[in-house]
Design brief:
By secondary structure, this protein is an alpha/beta fold. It has 14 helices and 24 strands. The strands form six sheets. It has a nine-stranded mixed beta sheet with strand order 7-13-12-11-10-14-19-23-24.
């Protein structure tokens, strides 16, 4: 394990710790536990590791997103136990085919037992794999635009392997490690960001954006989660008419960083970080990363802080906006599965729902289109089918937005909630939902 030691000749140690991907892969032993924060997985290292499938057994790999290093096959299952925490295009099929496992989690859960002094119950981090910038003049490297739990995990990992990449930006906040805290550096010179091509916004996206714009007021603190519909909000101008917004969140979607440049997000009235834009992952394109690089207006912190509902609730007027897949008429939200089938991940949805609920003037907003499968299925349903995973309980139901309007559930009875939700359901399904509500909630 690397131990912080600022007295070493860091240049000499850095040169000594440089190695090729194949050498880094040789550091793994059967039964090791590998953890990779999002935005840090190094494909050269992982491909070299996957190539050792005949030499290893029972290496457990956990990450929010596990990239395809050629190991999503039955032939690799004995060597690698792959357990992503967020169903994506990279690993969703492998999870649902049961080639990969699935790790249901609250984002800070990987450290809970450890931090509580229950080390014997904690999931051990034998190897942490991260991506960092080259060292600065003082021998420190930055975790760039994605900090997550990389800094805290390095403190307890038995071994730290870092891809060192000149394309990693330097950020302010709690985003730095000293060379002495990293055991091996693998030089890589590949892009860490790509420009994503978005499909043209639909009428559904536009309707949702217009309704969300009604809920955000000047001076609010906002949080926006990833998703096809939440991701379109900044690009569709949902926040353009507001002034002096603050940002306190898990991550960003494209278009939020430019709102800082345009003076929409200023942090002027932030209760926790005045004049700062705060998240654990910031920037969604190379251009946005260029703005964030060495810019003191942006600060990155670990998820142990940013996804703690107690910290979130300190933002008195936070509006937490996150995408959902489905809702039932009582206000339960399904966020990451369709029935038992994994489709996405919880991410920060539950943490920000709770934090906004606890904030003195907070609002939790769940965004979803009114239908799925080309309009053939209502996303608002009378009751969840058996096997559906409930991410947010009805006890903290607040605000639901579809392209048809805003359903305000806070303080409502189940009958009143049903009426609110039916009013924002697709018109083709409202009669059916009313009939079901009568059977469920009336004598």
């Amino acid at each position: 394990m690397g131990r912080f030691d600022p007295t070493i000749d860091w240049r000499e140690e850095y040169a000594r710790r440089l190695c090729a991907p194949e050498q880094a892969a040789l550091q793994f032993r059967s039964g090791d536990h590998l953890w990779m924060p999002p935005g840090h997985a190094s494909l050269p290292i992982l491909e070299a590791l996957a190539a050792r499938k005949d030499e290893l057994e029972g290496v457990e790999v956990r990450a929010v997103i596990i990239p395809d290093a050629g190991w999503f096959t039955e032939e690799h299952m004995q060597a690698f136990h792959l357990a992503p925490q967020f169903g994506t295009l990279f690993d969703r099929d492998a999870v649902n085919a049961r080639i990969a496992d699935y790790h249901p989690y609250w984002l800070v859960g990987i450290h809970k037992a450890w931090d509580a002094g229950r080390e014997d119950e904690a999931w051990p981090i034998d190897v942490l794999q991260i991506r960092v910038s080259p060292p600065n003049e003082a021998g420190y490297v930055s975790l760039g635009g994605s900090v997550w739990d990389g800094v805290s995990s390095a403190k307890r990992a038995k071994k730290v392997i870092a891809e060192v990449n000149a394309n990693v930006i330097e950020t302010f906040g709690d985003s730095w490690l000293h060379v002495s805290e990293i055991d091996h550096f693998v030089p890589v010179d590949s892009p860490v960001m790509v420009n994503l091509e978005h499909p043209p916004p639909s009428d559904v996206d536009l309707g949702i954006a217009q309704h969300v714009a009604e809920l955000v007021q000047d001076g609010d603190t906002i949080q926006v989660g990833v998703g096809s519909h939440t991701g379109a909000l900044p690009r569709l101008g949902a926040f353009d008419e507001r002034e002096n917004l603050s940002y306190f969140a898990e991550l960003t979607v494209e278009g939020l960083v430019p709102l800082v440049e345009r003076g929409v997000i200023t942090g002027k009235y932030s209760d926790t970080h005045p004049d700062k834009f705060v998240a654990t992952v910031i920037g969604n394109t190379p251009d946005e990363h260029a703005v964030v690089h060495q810019n003191p207006a942006f600060e990155t912190y670990g998820i142990e802080y940013l996804l703690d509902p107690r910290q979130i609730s300190r933002n008195e007027r936070i509006v937490a906006i996150n995408g959902a897949l489905t809702a039932d008429l009582s206000g339960q939200m399904g966020v990451h599965t369709i029935g038992p089938r994994v489709y996405a991940g919880v991410g920060g949805h539950l943490a920000f729902a709770m934090g906004a609920y606890l904030a003195p003037k907070g609002r939790y907003v769940a965004v979803l289109p009114s239908t799925s499968r080309d309009g053939t299925i209502s996303t608002i349903m009378p009751q969840f089918e058996p096997g559906q995973i409930v991410t947010v309980p009805r006890d903290i139901a607040d605000t639901v937005v579809t392209e048809y309007g805003i359903a305000r559930l806070l303080g409502k009875t189940v009958r009143q909630r049903a009426e609110e939700l039916i009013s924002v359901a697709h018109p083709d399904f409202r009669a059916e939902l009313r009939k079901a509500a009568q059977n469920l909630f009336w004598p």
